[in-house]
Specification:
Elements lengths: L11 H14 L46 H11 L12 H4 L47 H4 L1 H5 L13 H9 L2 H10 L9 H13 L7 H6 L7 H10 L7 H4 L42 H4 L31 H10 L3 E2 L6 E2 L17 H12 L4 H5 L11
Antiparallel strand pairs: 1-2
Helix pairs in contact: 2-7, 2-8, 10-14, 13-14
The structure holds heme C (2 copies).
One heme C binds next to helix 11 and helix 13.
Length: 401
């Protein structure tokens, strides 16, 4: 049996420091966990409607920042804001423009277009179970909360996404403050605050809404609960996925089908990032700028091409795949893994990713015949949670235009 990740591991001390930072930001106090737990948030600041998690069997209680407790009113406000184009500088774009529910909150494009026409460097991520992600985005070991992450789409200037800046921030808040809908909803969510319509509260409410995006009622979950039957191909695919031949489970083996998970009872936090051999420009091991993984932030050679393994829940509807959307289908993903990396034979990115010196040794030439690849694809499609993709509580509260 091969060792688990050979990819980038935050050293224990660093992980410890991060866990400390997380514990500071999140209430990691033991709130139980386990099967289908419902807990009311007792530390809640005044807000109308206490929150009860309705979690799938086996899902732990998510960690929630002490200064942003969950509440029905906060989630409801966040849902409105998430879908509201008034929240972008020029009024053309909402979070939901790049995060569409029927695609598990990704957008179907390799890269996305911001409100002023600029393109993002990476592919929009799905948001299913994002409450459990200890680090956010494709490759950023220091982006540790949904609240912090949100500053990127809201305020980033390169590339511009929602296009908020010092010259329009006040005006955009005024747009919200002018509406009785938001006067009422901010007051309900942040009761007792003199002027609750501010950016901190916008961010808190949207983060709460995102934490409510729990997905765990796929055919796979029903199969595990004894409520659904797998076809022979799905069954073979599952055994391959969780077996030592295909190795997928090493990096996608958590209840969330990834390898970075935080929840209310987390004591030791592992934050692996892996190089899967997508590139090896000119045989130097390089990935193309500005998509060189953790290296973009750390500048450390060992971090070249290190990315966070995404949760594979709902992966059937989140194409195209990988950080740059360069693999279009699940069949393409399986061809890539079976080959042990990607050999690019021409163009500026030419180089044999299979020989990338930093590639995880779990990504190796695996003998998967066509049937076995099809079996794994069939298994991956059992991770689709149709309730999640259509849940009215996660859909737009506004009438269709
Ligand atoms: C222009 C398209 C676009 C808009 C608008 C947008 N996003 Fe994103 N989102 C992305 C892209 C692209 C990424 C991947 C970022 C990266 O890795 O650099 C992403 C990543 C994320 C992530 C990280 C998910 C994970 O698994 O780590 C979260 C959370 C998120 N977006 C929330 C939001 C919220 C909330 C808003 C509105 C305030 C928003 N996004 C608006 C394109 C967009
Ligand atoms: C060494 C860890 C590792 C192993 C083993 C591994 N993966 Fe991955 N997987 C990743 C990483 C990291 C990414 C993101 C790569 C990127 O974007 O550059 C990823 C991406 C994916 C994606 C794309 C998801 C998306 O939303 O874009 C799929 C599908 C996938 N893996 C399936 C599998 C399957 C099936 C196997 C087994 C054959 C497997 N993985 C084995 C780490 C791994």
């Amino acid at each position: 049996m091969k060792s688990r990740h050979r990819g980038f591991f935050l050293k224990l001390s660093v992980a410890g420091a991060l866990l400390g930072a997380l514990a500071g930001a999140l209430s990691l106090a033991g709130c139980g966990g386990g099967d289908g737990v419902s807990v009311a948030d007792t530390a809640a600041a005044p807000a109308s409607g206490s929150w009860r998690w309705t979690l799938p069997t086996g899902f732990p209680v998510p960690a929630v920042p002490a200064d942003n407790p969950m509440s029905e009113a906060g989630v409801d406000l966040g849902r409105h804001l998430f879908y509201d184009k008034r929240l972008s500088g020029n009024g053309t774009q909402a979070c939901a423009s790049c995060h569409l529910q029927d695609r598990a909150f990704t957008d179907g494009f390799a890269v996305s277009q911001g409100s002023t026409g600029q393109f993002t460097h990476r592919s929009a991520q799905h948001l299913g179970n994002v409450a459990y992600n200890p680090t956010l985005t494709w490759a950023n070991p220091s982006l540790l909360s949904l609240e912090k992450q949100m500053e990127v789409p809201l305020f980033s200037e390169d590339p511009v996404e929602m296009g908020l800046n010092d010259s329009n921030k006040a005006q955009v808040l005024q747009r919200l403050a002018d509406l009785p809908l938001y006067q009422q909803k901010f007051t309900a969510a942040f009761a007792g605050q003199g002027s609750p319509i501010n950016w901190n509260n916008v961010i808190k409410a949207i983060a709460s809404f995102q934490r409510s995006m729990i997905t765990g009622n796929s055919k796979y979950d029903q199969f595990v609960a004894g409520k659904a039957v797998f076809t022979p191909t799905e069954l073979r695919g599952m055994n391959l996925f969780f077996g030592e031949k295909a190795e997928c489970f090493h990096c996608h083996g958590s209840f969330n089908f990834n390898d970075q998970v935080v929840h209310a009872s987390t004591r030791v936090l592992e934050l692996p990032f892996s190089n899967t051999g997508l590139f090896n420009i000119g045989g130097t091991g390089a990935f193309p700028e500005p998509n060189r993984g953790v290296f973009e932030l750390s500048g450390l050679p060992r971090d070249m091409g290190m990315f966070r393994a995404p949760s594979l829940r709902n992966v059937e509807v989140t194409a195209p795949y990988t950080h740059d959307g360069s693999i279009e289908t699940l069949e393409g993903m399986l061809d890539f893994y079976a080959a042990g990396g990607r050999n690019i034979t021409s163009g500026p990115h030419a180089g044999d990713g299979r020989l990338n010196p930093l590639k995880s040794d779990l990504i190796a030439l695996i003998n998967l015949d066509a049937q076995e690849k099809a079996d794994i694809v069939a298994f991956l499609k059992t991770l689709t949670d149709h309730d999640f993709l259509t849940n009215p509580k996660l859909s737009s509260p506004f009438p269709a235009p």
